[in-house]
């Protein structure tokens, strides 16, 4: 029962005091967000983790976010992920070993060019480390364009991974949409060396299974049914969806769009359904609609953080036991720190 669980969480938090901070991504369930000390997008959460003093950082989010928190926090701080099953499928679409092998092929296709790899935050620590080792960095959806600019000041080409849609949307923002090659590591015909040689941006063929499901039909339907509606979408959506929307941005931008809307305005939200539901609750004066109507755009990875698991990890800490600790290997940590610091500096 929820009220009993809330009492147990509050009791554990009272016992743990300043030893614990809870960070929650915007896609977390209401029962997690309500207990979080800070709720935000990936970039904001990485900054909060860097500034946190608490001995334990409990991360309401997915593995790559908890790994980044472990990389950014001090060595004497411990990061805990309430469920070890919370893994973003997109992050799994660019395994460091696979990227390492592709890197040799891509470099061979453009032997005279300096290629800078940029990985989206939605990737594992070993890939972040790989990018740093090749002179690259990390970005989130809120600073991808600045990461591209940073890279083009230092090299000739960018390899962006894993999210081809964020890559394409960023290329478009920079006026480089005609300068793209795609690299599909799973398709023998998906690696065109000539195209790589001729293009300044090379996009790895990964995607978010939640955002890829949004279609321009959804936008057409919402505009038919609500003629005053405006549409805001996440840049992990397909290019044509972003082009048809009124606004695009990270989950923090989507929150701000609704927070600053006038009462009575209508906004349709093209992102994970839990955030849309939060925005409806947080801003009842704004008419907030899910862009997909009744079709549920639910992130299965984020959903793994069940409030019962949050209760469990907190009560275990009270009992002196650390459960579900996320710890990045020291050698990877050192390089991944470089990649994350480069992002935090831009
Ligand atoms: P934000 O960086 O916009 O919070 O997005 C994270 C994410 O996983 C989007 O699918
Ligand atoms: Fe990964 Fe997409 Fe879920 Fe974000 S919404 S955590 S990118 S699967």
TrEMBL record:
One of its GO terms (biological process) is 'de novo' NAD+ biosynthetic process from L-aspartate. Its cofactor is [4Fe-4S] cluster. [4Fe-4S] cluster binds at residues 88, 208, 299. Keywords: 4Fe-4S, Cytoplasm, Iron, Iron-sulfur, Metal-binding, Pyridine nucleotide biosynthesis, Transferase. It is found in: Cytoplasm. GO terms for cellular component: cytoplasm. It catalyses: iminosuccinate + dihydroxyacetone phosphate = quinolinate + phosphate + 2 H2O + H(+). InterPro entries: NadA (IPR003473), NadA_sf (IPR036094), Quinolinate_synth_A_type3 (IPR023515). Its EC number is 2.5.1.72. SUPFAM superfamilies: NadA-like. The keyword Iron-sulfur applies. It is an enzyme of class 2 (transferase). Belongs to the quinolinate synthase family. Type 3 subfamily. Catalyzes the condensation of iminoaspartate with dihydroxyacetone phosphate to form quinolinate. This is Quinolinate synthase. The gene is nadA.
């Amino acid at each position: 029962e929820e009220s009993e669980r809330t009492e147990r969480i509050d009791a554990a938090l009272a016992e743990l005091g300043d030893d614990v901070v809870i960070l929650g991504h915007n896609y977390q369930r209401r029962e997690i967000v309500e207990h979080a000390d800070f709720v935000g997008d990936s970039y904001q959460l990485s900054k909060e983790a860097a500034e946190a003093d608490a001995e334990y950082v409990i991360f309401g989010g997915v593995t790559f976010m908890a790994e980044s928190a472990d990389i950014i926090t001090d060595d004497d701080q411990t990061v805990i992920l309430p469920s070890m099953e919370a893994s973003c499928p997109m992050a799994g679409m660019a395994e460091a070993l696979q990227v390492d092998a592709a890197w040799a092929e891509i470099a061979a296709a453009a032997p005279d060019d300096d290629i800078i790899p940029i990985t989206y935050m939605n990737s594992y620590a070993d890939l972040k480390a790989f990018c740093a080792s090749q002179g690259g960095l990390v970005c989130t959806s809120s600073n991808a364009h600045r990461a591209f600019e940073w890279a083009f000041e230092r090299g000739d080409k960018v390899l962006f991974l894993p999210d081809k849609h964020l890559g394409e949307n960023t290329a478009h923002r920079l006026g480089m949409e005609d300068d793209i090659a795609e690299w599909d590591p799973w398709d023998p015909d998906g690696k065109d060396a000539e195209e790589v040689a001729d293009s300044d941006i090379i996009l790895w063929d990964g995607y978010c299974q939640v955002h890829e499901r949004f279609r321009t039909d959804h936008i057409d339907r919402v505009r038919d049914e609500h003629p005053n509606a405006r549409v805001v979408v996440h840049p992990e959506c397909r290019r044509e969806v972003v082009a048809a929307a009124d606004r695009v941005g990270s989950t923090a931008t989507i929150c701000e769009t609704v927070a600053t809307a006038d009462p009575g305005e209508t906004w349709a939200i093209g992102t994970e359904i839990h955030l849309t539901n939060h925005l409806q609750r947080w801003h009842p004066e704004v008419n907030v609609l899910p862009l997909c109507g009744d079709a549920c755009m639910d992130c299965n990875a984020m959903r793994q953080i069940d409030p019962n698991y949050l209760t469990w990890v907190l009560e275990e800490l009270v009992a002196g036991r650390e459960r579900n600790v996320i710890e990045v290997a020291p050698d990877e940590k050192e390089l991944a720190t470089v990649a994350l610091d480069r992002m935090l500096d831009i």
